[in-house]
Amino acid sequence: MATATARRTLVTTLLLAPATAWLVVFLVLPFIAVIVFSVGLRAPEGGYQAAFTLAQYANLGARSTAFWNTMVLAPAGALACLLVAYPVAYYLALRVSPRRRLILLALVVIPFWTSLLMRTYAWMYILGARGIPAFLDLIGIPDVRLLNTPGSVMLGIVYGYLPLMILPIYVSLERLDRRLLEASADLGATPVSTFLGVTLPLSLPGVMTGISLVTILLLGEYLIPTLLGGGKVFFIGNALVDLFLQSRNWPFGSAIAVTLVVASVLVLLVANRVTARISGARQVDLI
Description:
This protein is mainly α. It is built from twelve helices and no strands.
């Protein structure tokens, strides 16, 4: 018995070794380097100078605008994605035949086949002076500015991240036991009551997964604010690019990066806690 257990342990260790080595080399060690940089000083010519100080963390307020924009627009973008994604996922999971469902799911995923850069450039043209504003000017609504505004950034966020919100919600809804919906209807519940009392609670794990996934990605977003915000809507990702590549203040940039990772971990912890409580409550209700 002991020999069999040891053999299984050895096989498991060998199977996990490549993935573990990959994570250590390309995730853990770089993050440790970032932490070390964050407690250092900027060298006179730029870069990193060895030291041990928390001055970089104390100076985080210097990038308060980037933090504020990110902490406001990232959750708002996730919420906007949710409001658009839930009806789409509901329709795909519960209102479409299996054959049509595959086609519509493919249409949801197809935008990922094109670079986000190209799709964002397309929105730059649509929202730019020769796009929608030109059309509005033709019908008598002049001087409408859509590009380089928080609204254009929000639109780009919803368009770019919508599939990542649709798919986890769709999975939750697709696994939903249809007999629960039928039982609710047989007991006299209205469609709205069935949705609020059965469908929505059972799909909340997928909702939380989509919200956490989109929010975490948006915390480090750089491309959409740069192209659609025109340098007027700064995210933390824009601040990191500026600090590492322009001003070459690696310690300060590392401190911001560590703070960003901590914020992402907090989002995951909160999402997991909420999902666990929802799942527990669901099991109790079903019992």
